[in-house]
């Protein structure tokens, strides 16, 4: 805790002091363009990997970057999605999985969480991944299996997201775009699902333009 409190002190004297105008503007409200749904994993930092500033990303994080089906009962995720879409008017939703995801490892090895009733219950929202993996990627093992399950989970959760009434309505009005990403922790590479390739392709691989789009 000492380290975190030291960080709070340094933050006020450095970042807060240097970005005084930004934080003053943010004090009056937020208008993020993007909702990002990512894993709770301590190694995944949506703002860091996108180099987004405070106010740019509205973020939901939970174990396994899961979007429980809307009809499974309204919880925190559904409420946050509704607020982001209907009140903040986000134009993009990014569903971001990641390499080495403990939730995906647990999903593939149910015996590892048999003693954790809340985790077992939560991961039911990702169970469709297992049957899809069985159908489309039988024979994969180890890291390849984990990678495939992680990608399929992104697509399963995007499908749950599309069925959320606020998202469905925004999609109908063409007011929102959905994106499926997987972040690779050791390389920093983020791959995005493209329907034309029916797979994930790097957005920031070695040949990609390092500058990215100009900041607004
Ligand atoms: Zn994870």
Within the CATH hierarchy, at the fold level, what is the topology of the largest domain?
Beta-carbonic Anhydrase, Chain A
Order of helices and strands: HHHEHEHEHHHHHEEE
Structural class: alpha/beta
Q: Strand sequence of the main sheet, in spatial order?
A: 2-1-3-4-5-6
The total count of helices amounts to 10
Bound compounds: zinc ion
* CATH class category label of the largest domain: Alpha Beta
What can be said about the biggest beta sheet?
Answer: 6 strands, mixed
Distance between the termini: 36 Å
Percent of residues in β-strands: 15-25%
The name of the CATH architecture of the largest domain is 3-Layer(aba) Sandwich
Q: Give me the count of strands.
A: 6
CATH superfamily assignment of the largest domain?
Answer: Carbonic anhydrase
* Helix content percent band: 40-55%
| Chain-averaged pLDDT | 94
Give short descriptive properties of this protein.
globular; binds zinc ion; alpha/beta; 10 helices; Beta-carbonic Anhydrase, Chain A; 6 strands; 2 domains
Q: Explain this structure to me?
A:
With 216 residues, the protein is of the alpha/beta class. The chain has two domains: 30 residues; 172 residues, Carbonic anhydrase (Beta-carbonic Anhydrase, Chain A, 3-Layer(aba) Sandwich), CATH 3.40.1050. 43% of the residues lie in helices and 16% in strands. The protein contains ten helices and six strands. Strands 2-1-3-4-5-6 form a six-stranded mixed sheet, with helices on one face. Helix 5 packs parallel to helix 10. The radius of gyration is 18 Å and the shape is globular. The model has no long low-confidence stretch (mean pLDDT 94). The site of zinc ion has 7 residues, from helix 6. Zinc ion binds next to helix 6.
């Amino acid at each position: 805790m000492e380290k975190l409190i030291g960080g709070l002190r340094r933050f006020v004297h450095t970042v807060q002091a240097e970005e005084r105008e930004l934080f003053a503007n943010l004090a009056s409200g937020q208008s993020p363009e993007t909702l990002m749904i990512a894993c709770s994993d301590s190694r995944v930092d949506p703002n860091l990997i996108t180099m987004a500033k405070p106010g740019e990303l509205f973020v939901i994080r939970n174990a396994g970057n899961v979007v429980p089906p809307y009809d499974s009962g309204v919880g925190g995720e559904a409420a946050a999605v509704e607020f982001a879409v209907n009140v903040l008017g986000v134009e993009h939703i990014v569903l971001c999985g990641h390499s080495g995801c403990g939730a995906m490892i647990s999903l593939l090895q149910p015996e590892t969480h048999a003693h954790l009733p809340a985790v077992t219950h939560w991961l039911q929202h990702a169970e469709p991944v297992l049957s899809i993996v069985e159908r489309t990627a039988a024979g994969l093992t180890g890291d390849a299996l984990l990678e495939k399950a992680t990608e399929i989970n992104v697509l399963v959760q995007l499908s749950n997201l599309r069925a959320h009434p606020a998202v469905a309505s925004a999609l109908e009005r063409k007011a929102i775009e959905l994106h499926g990403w997987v972040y690779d922790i050791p390389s920093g590479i983020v791959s995005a699902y493209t329907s034309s390739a029916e797979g994930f392709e790097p957005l920031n691989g070695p040949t990609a333009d390092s500058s990215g789009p100009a900041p607004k």
